[in-house]
Amino acid sequence: MKHQPGRRGSEKRYQALFNSTFQLVFTLDLQGRLTDVNRTALGLVGCSAEEVIGLPFVETPWWERADLSRQRLAELIAAARGEFVRFDICIRHRTSERCIDFSIKPIFVDDGVDFLLVEGRDITDYEAAARKNIQLKNLYDTLSRINATILHARDEELLLQQICDIAASLEEVRLAWIGFVEPLDNRVRPVAWAGEALAAIQDFSLHPVEACDVGGNALQADSRPMVIDDLGEENVLRPLHDILTERQLRSLAAFPLFRDGEPCGLFVVYASLSCYFRGGRLGLFEELAANTSFALGNLARERKRLAAERALRESETRYRDLVENARSIITRVSPTGEITYFNRYAEEIFGFDREEVLDRPLWETILPEVEECGRNLRSMIEGILHSPDDYQHNVNQNVCRDGRRLWIAWHNRGMRDDQGRLVEILSIGHDITEQRRQAELIERKASEEELRGNLLRLVLEPLTMEKFLKQGLRLILDTPWLGLIQRGGVFLADAAAEQLQLEAEVNLPRRQVEACRTVPFGTCLCGRVAMQMRPFIGENNPDIDLRAGHLGLHGHCVLPLVSGKELVGVLCLYTVPGQESDGQIRRLLESVADIFAVGISRRQAEAALRKQETLLRRLIDTIPLPIFYKDTDLVFQECNDAFAREVIGLPKEQIVGRNMYDIAPLDLARLYEDADRDVLRSGGSQVYQTEVRYADGSRRSVLLHRAVLTRDDGTPFGIVGAILDLSEHERLEEQLRHAQKVEALGTLTGGVAHDFNNFLTAIMGYASILKLKSPPASEQEQIVDQILQTTERASKLTYSLLAYSRRQVSRPMPLDINQVVCGLEKMLRRIIPETIEFATSLCESPLMVLADVSQLEQVLMNLVTNARDAMPSGGPLRIETGMTEVDESFVRQHGFGVPGPYVYLRVVDTGEGMSREVMERIFDPFFTTKQVGKGTGLGLSVSYGIVRQHRGGIVVESEQGGGSVFTVYLPRTERMPGTDDPTVSHLAIGGSELLLVVEDDPAVRQVTRSVLEEVGYRVLTASDGEEGLNVYRQNADRIAMVLTDIIMPRKTGLEMYEEIRRIDSSVRTIFFSGYTFDALEDHGIDQSQLDIIFKPVTPMEMLNRIRELLDA
To answer: Of 241, 450, 499, 622, most Cβ neighbours within 10 A?
Structure first.
């Protein structure tokens, strides 16, 4: 207990430290719940500790609007239980967004993880500064260009214009101008200007007061720059508002210019963005203005210095004190090279006392005999001493007492006596060491930009890959300060083969070229760089495995060429041995590699595009629609083969480059021209139906689509057109209309037949009961037999109606069409007169189809009968069978079937034939060309319905006077016919079981009940499925069988059956339906899964089926 105060003090110190840190600090338990949080973290989201402590960390406010999913955070927390985890995210709260660098690490206590420590460091300002640095870099580059201009400036007017040109080239800068103050009216007069809004200079001349007042303010208020963030809000500029708006001038900065410390003018910059001069841009423009002032001062000083030299020659004595105290190095040297004068500034610069140098030769004091670059300075001095007028200006290195070397710019003049003899040489020098260093940097920067610019120009030029690479390589090697040996090569990457291929080289030895034509990834230096995608810059090393061996002393500079994230090649260069590493050179070479990668990618993309264009052209040629493309002069630039062949009738080569007047009749050319001009005027597209004359002379109904092709700026550059032949479409539309008529009549027929079957079922039932109750051989029994016979004939009529509507009861089975023909042949010969020569030509192989044999016999009988009636004068009549394959074009042409194997049954007659009008109506019900009483008009329509129900079709070919060919197509099947087990047992027709009858038609329900009760069954009845289900639930243990209609109101028989099966899965059920198999399919009912008797139902059929199921 005596240690408790110390512990409390330690906890207080810990809490003070925990809450005083600027970082976000959290502690979590091992389940990821927040156990503690410091004030900095709470302040970020504006909540209290009580609101969040105890919550799962992923559900706290810090993650509500963070760009990290809660699931991912939970995964990171789980991972941190065993290792240090770090990640960066952006947290958005209220109106601010902060970038946080998070880390999660486990805290171990007693050899185990006790809790998790989460720390967050706010790096928002760092990220913002990084973005700002990128923006400022571009401004620094501009400043470097201006500094280079200033360094070489000799003419003030040219200098000022170049500064304006460079400033105006900056993004968003619309206008830059420089003006000087007029001494008479103290106004600023522009002397140089540049920019896209150049016309504003003339506009300002119309309003000199307002324009100059803005600039004049920069010459006041302590000579600081003046910045206007929004020119539209400046009162003094209201007269210029329209000009500023029209010229897109939204912000302004004016900087005072000085000459020798005195304000002399203004440097004014207008930008198209408001607040453009915020941040670092203002400082850079200030530096630009300061450098301009420095240049103005230099030019002024240069003029003054020249004047001073002239004055010095007139009176050396008068200005000795001035020379002695000048801030220039001034020396005099005897003709033999000894120093005779050394001013104070020379002492300061070189560190020598004048007593140490006077009367001593130059090369023993301030002049080295040889410069660092190797120039012999002693010989240069001997030249100056011999002929000083030839060395009025020279720049050379000088040496200080401490060994430092300075670059001095010297101005020399020979002093002669009255006899003209050289007695002394006056030299005035300026230390330009720093300027020279800056100039070298500026020159190098200019050289860099020139190199990049030339390489970018090559990227855009239409050069082959090899020429681009070789010319670019020469540009790099010809840059002297890079220190490269005059040889190198460029490899292209083959990612699929994982190797490099030498594409271009300059001055590489033959041995190296042969050895390095292909370099696998990972081998040799270039292959290693390709695999690692990292540059190698360093000295030659015997340990490096080179495929071509070591080729003398040199260094290596091998750079990967990467476009996006894909390696496209490798650039291989060689450096002078012993060259020191230079970061600027490395950065330049890496940027050069990027430009090479862009050029390679561009050419590879262009090659791929050319390949794609070729493929596209071939694809267009394969399109069956005629397609063409013209320019705005209506000259064909491209067309596909269909257009050339079908519409024009000429080879494509004779169409491209010509207009319609060159290749088509005058009337057709005028028609095309009028349509083309019309769509050009509209500027959009046109789709319309018209007639076009094709190359074969036919006029066809077509859908013509023309569209104008436009550039990005909306100006048209051509027309593209496509022609769709509607002839086949219109024919198919006519077929569809005909089919829809037939389908509508078929639907009506099917509905009538359904109701008729119910009536017949009731009549047959009552008549059968009546017959059972009639005395044998009585008149009553004869009357009942007549009723039954009449209902049988009525049922056959119903069958014919259903056959036409394709809704008859069909029991398909595998059968051979050849056997159907053979089975009917004797019957057919009996109905064909002797004047007709009947023959069959059957396929030798079995022709298996899935069909109802009786329906197929009916089709064959109808077709042969129809052919017989068309041949009153006799002639050949032939039946053929065979196999064929149906393709897409056949399906499109005839409107039935799917591509695949089919069999055909063909009836060929040599009769009178048919006209086109008759052929279009032959399958219409009740249509006939026979005399009254000779035909019903249902034969062919019934045959058509049967064939279509079997998923086939009938194709008719005929000419008037040339006979007819009817071909039936049916899908071929691989199934073979099976054998049926004959029923051997005789079924009783009566019983005593309890049966449930569910039927919505009252007459059918009542007659069914009567028939069943007549033979001893007990019967319960219901009028729909809902009532039937209730009756079954009440008598489930007593009911032996359910007899039900299928389609009923409220609840169908099938729905009732499904619910009954939940009560008793073994229930026996017989379904009755006045609808047929096709109609049941329309209701989603599968016949194969049910025991169905189709109406009309005879009592014997029903009783036999009931007894069969009950006794099974």
So the answer is: 499
